[in-house]
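Our working data are protein records whose layout never changes between entries. Instead of coordinates, the fold is spelled out as a row of discrete tokens. Here is such a record, shown just as it appears in the course material:
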Amino acid sequence: MIVDRIKGVVAAAGFMAGLAAAPAMAATVTPVFTATGTFAADDGVALFQLTLDASGSVDLRTFGYAGGTMEDGTSVPAGGFDPALWLFAADGSFLAGNDDGAGVGSDPVTGQPYDARISGPLGAGTYFLALTQYQNTPLAATDPGKTLADGFTYDGQPHYTATLQSGFCDPTSFFCDSWVVDGKSVLRTGDYAVQAKGVSSFTPLSDPSPSPVPLPAGLPLLLGAFAGLAALGRRRS
């Protein structure tokens, strides 16, 4: 069962000691939200709703693969599955996706930087963020006629990574990594951790589920400017 934990924290710069004579300045406040959870099988999906009260720069990233410390102080152990992040507009249309993000850490076992990251400008409005395991791509990413509600490539295939890594992973295994050591795929855990920075709110909407996730009814289309974030994750096997 998923164990989601949302924390809102603020990061603010203080003044250097010994500068008491300096004029007072307003601190820059940047909200940070985090969530952790566990997938039971390869085809799990964690879905979040995020909002921005005004246009700004966002940073959405995972920590579960390589581990690390999120900005709210949460320590995340390495060893989780290779994640991917997928961003959608309020109507469920696809905006951006990433498998291996820039500036993420490297796993101590595989040496690989496989955590996901989406960052850049985003307009005011409501959005959805889906977290999946690698290669479990939303159908909407390759078909503009589809939306988030149409689901993901490996829906209903709880051992799909074992199939992708056939010959290197037991067919009944979960979370078979693409990285092979001594002729065997490195087995990961179902744990994930995600951090959202620069958003006004960040709310989990569902447990990981292999079935397509329906959108909440009545949400308006609130698309903003979103540049340079259309790159999909790499294909590997």
Q: What stands out?
A: The longest helix spans residues 160-164. Confidence is low (pLDDT under 50) at residues 1-23, 208-237. The domain at 29-206 is CATH 2.60.120.380 (Jelly Rolls).
